[in-house]
TrEMBL record:
This is NAD(P)-binding protein. Residues 1-21 are annotated as: Disordered. The lineage of its organism: Eukaryota, Fungi, Dikarya, Ascomycota, Pezizomycotina. Coiled coil: none annotated. It comes from the Eukaryota. Signal peptide: none annotated. Keywords: NADP, Oxidoreductase. GO terms for molecular function: oxidoreductase activity, acting on NAD(P)H, oxygen as acceptor; oxidoreductase activity, acting on the CH-OH group of donors, NAD or NADP as acceptor. Belongs to the short-chain dehydrogenases/reductases (SDR) family.
Length: 289
């Protein structure tokens, strides 16, 4: 039997000490000293992504419509904020903002710009889902869905881009779309949600075309079925989906929020420096059948 090969450190021939390994073996993924705004960052997928960006070295400001979660020391947000300060030499700041109100969005980006003196990235994760047969949607429900998922995404991206253009520095904007912007979900009546996410994808392509001259990249990230609170709430009304939906993708399971950490970091860092106007779909192969 051939003995197992072992890795043996090779010493420099002259006996000199080997230089220390760099802190980032892939420096293009580093977010050190960069400033990022995350909408929908009060909890769930947005907060998970915010923590990943902090781990990569970024300073992060989260905006959300929720009451300030940092005031509750037991909340997920407060735990991440404490870790950012104590372990990661950074800070996570919360701002309560309605992303559908342009004055509020403009004000928060101005505050971030004034405090940090720069803006390098924006992750647009705020959004809602409401399921209903298309024949039963009320005008009010249509307006709310499109106002939050489309108008809110646009105003957030616009607010970020205005600061980037003012500073004259390149930046990256990532809008959270969905595989539902590409496919119609089997057995789920979500025509307006699907429409809104398709709109986000086209929005990103259009903004990328317009803002590329400023060095601003705009892409979308399209998750598959992910165990966020939004999905878990649906199981209360439709318990059969808990078993059905995992069977519809090639990996036969749901995804978890943490499985999108690397994707968001890739899109917001220099690792994707030549990527814009594109969609990164991560759906376990659901759309590839």
């Amino acid at each position: 039997m051939t003995p197992a090969l072992q890795s043996v450190p090779v010493q420099p021939a002259n006996g000199a000490a080997r230089p220390a390994a760099p802190s980032h073996l892939l420096p293009e993924f580093s977010m050190k000293d960069k400033v990022v705004v995350v909408s929908g960052g009060g909890r769930g997928l947005g907060l998970v992504q915010a923590e990943a960006l902090i781990e990569a070295g970024a300073v992060v400001h989260c905006i959300d419509i929720l009451p300030d979660p940092s005031l509750d020391p037991t909340s997920e947000f407060a735990v991440v904020a404490a870790r950012a300060k104590k372990e990661l030499n950074s800070h996570l700041t919360y701002h309560r903002v309605d992303v559908t109100e342009e004055p509020q969005v403009t004000e928060v980006f101005e505050k971030v710009a004034e405090k940090e003196g720069r803006l390098d990235g924006c992750l647009v994760a705020a959004g809602i889902n409401y399921e209903s047969p298309a024949l039963e949607y009320s005008p009010e429900q249509v307006d709310r869905m499109l106002r939050i998922n489309v108008k809110g995404a646009f105003l957030t991206a616009q607010g970020a881009a205005r600061i980037m253009v003012r500073f004259g520095t390149p930046g990256s904007i990532c809008l959270i779309a969905s595989m539902s912007g590409t496919i119609a979900n089997r057995g789920m009546f979500a025509s307006l949600y699907n429409t809104s996410k398709a709109g986000v994808m086209q929005m990103a392509r259009s903004l990328a075309a317009e803002w590329g001259v400023h060095g601003i990249r705009v892409n979308t990230l399209s998750p598959g079925y992910c165990t966020t609170q939004m999905l878990l709430n649906l199981f209360e009304q439709y318990p059969e989906r808990k078993a059905q939906w995992p069977s519809e993708n090639m990996l036969q399971r749901f995804s978890e929020p943490k499985e999108y950490r690397g994707a968001a970091l890739f899109l917001l860092s220099d690792a994707s420096s030549f990527m814009t106007g594109s969609d990164l779909r991560i759906d376990g192969g659901h759309s590839a059948w």
